[in-house]
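Example for tutorial group B:
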């Protein structure tokens, strides 16, 4: 919903009923991940996408009906359907799409959710997408780390879903959960789609060089909250890094230690060390490689620089399993030459590690081009970092 939220809020403020279509589950080679949304406004405009074009027309028509029917629908599109090719999903994937009417009457909590997302406060929206009783479908529970708003219809369901949604929210994950009709954990019959709106994952880039500017641009494109840090104030300026969210002048190891102690690192944080200068690199990596939950730690440098760096890290007391967390030299082998090409190779390795990709050309491998089912794949481990342990 995040990609259509601004338009949805505008329709909501006008008192209109809009049709909101959301991918809630995918199988095989589906084109979009769970959480992708398309909004159809009262005047017929379509915003967002649920399939990259494959089934947009069919979903659009279904969403247009919401203003008149007021009834939410869970619809499956895929090769198992008789009309799979007629709606255009020829990629071999399967999409479960939940289409619902959204208005001030059906979603009174929307303004509070909007405020939370805008302020960077974590919030999750849990929606009933399937239930034996039709009047349960479309009910919502808005879940925050310390409280919740709304109700799914039963206290035990509210409690169970809120607890599970907080776990997904902490990990920044969106998923569909199954329960018994009244929230029983061992039962079945009710399905809940939990859309998590956690703050953006962080990318910390150390070294205010031209390669850092290119990596910052790529990181911003991928949705990271990007910080560039360097101890040299003549180089670490906002003007040189327009795509970074923050530019910090500080010694890298001191800044990282402060972020760790403040609890501002998590299992989605990636670190790119681009200074290839031992006086900066080694103290920084001594801290970073001792944080097991970080999503990625990579360092730039030649083979000779890498070998020298590893020797220094061994001398500093790092264990073999800690050294194994380091991706160095950073990036995939793309034959990169320019800073921009090198940045692509760096984020390609980060993406590959996130989703378990091989890094091989798709033309040379068999099977689904999106890996196994997105339903079963999780991003980086959802481990909270506590610097006091």
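The residue assignment follows.
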């Amino acid at each position: 919903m995040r990609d259509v939220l601004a338009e949805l809020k505008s329709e909501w403020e006008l008192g209109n009923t809009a049709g909101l279509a959301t991918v809630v589950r995918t199988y095989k080679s589906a084109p979009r991940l769970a959480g992708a949304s398309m909004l159809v406004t009262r005047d017929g405009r379509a915003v967002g996408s649920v399939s990259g074009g494959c089934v947009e027309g069919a979903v659009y028509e279904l969403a247009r009906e919401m203003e008149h029917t007021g009834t939410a629908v869970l619809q499956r599109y895929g090769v198992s359907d008789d009309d799979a090719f007629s709606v255009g999903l020829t990629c071999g994937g399967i999409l479960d799409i939940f289409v619902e009417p959204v208005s001030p009457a059906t979603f009174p909590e929307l303004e509070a959710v909007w405020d939370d997302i805008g302020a960077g406060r974590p919030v999750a929206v849990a929606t009933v997408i399937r239930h034996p009783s039709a009047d349960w479908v479309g009910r919502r529970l808005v879940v925050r780390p310390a409280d919740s708003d709304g109700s799914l219809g039963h206290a035990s369901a509210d409690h169970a879903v809120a607890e599970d949604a907080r776990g997904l929210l902490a990990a920044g994950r969106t998923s569909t959960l199954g329960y018994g009709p009244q929230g029983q954990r061992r039962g079945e019959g009710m399905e809940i789609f939990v859309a998590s709106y956690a703050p953006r994952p962080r990318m910390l880039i150390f070294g205010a060089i031209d390669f850092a500017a290119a990596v910052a641009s790529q990181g911003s494109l991928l949705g990271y909250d990007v910080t560039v840090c360097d101890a040299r104030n003549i180089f670490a300026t906002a003007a040189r890094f327009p795509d970074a969210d923050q530019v910090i002048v500080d010694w890298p190891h001191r800044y990282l230690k402060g972020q760790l102690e403040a609890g501002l690192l998590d299992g989605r944080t990636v670190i790119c060390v681009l200074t290839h200068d031992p006086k900066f690199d080694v103290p920084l990596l001594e801290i970073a490689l001792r944080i097991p939950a970080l999503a990625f730690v990579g360092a730039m440098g030649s083979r000779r620089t890498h070998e020298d760096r590893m020797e220094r890290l061994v001398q500093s007391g790092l264990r073999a399993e800690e050294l194994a967390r380091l991706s160095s030299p950073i990036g995939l082998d793309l034959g990169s030459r320019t800073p921009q090409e090198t940045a692509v190779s760096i984020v390609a390795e980060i993406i590959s590690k996130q989703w378990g990709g091989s890094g091989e050309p798709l033309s040379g491998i068999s099977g689904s081009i999106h890996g196994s089912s997105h339903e079963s794949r999780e991003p980086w481990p959802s481990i909270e970092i506590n610097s006091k342990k």
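The radius of gyration is 23 Å. Compare this with the pattern of hydrophobic and polar residues in the output above.
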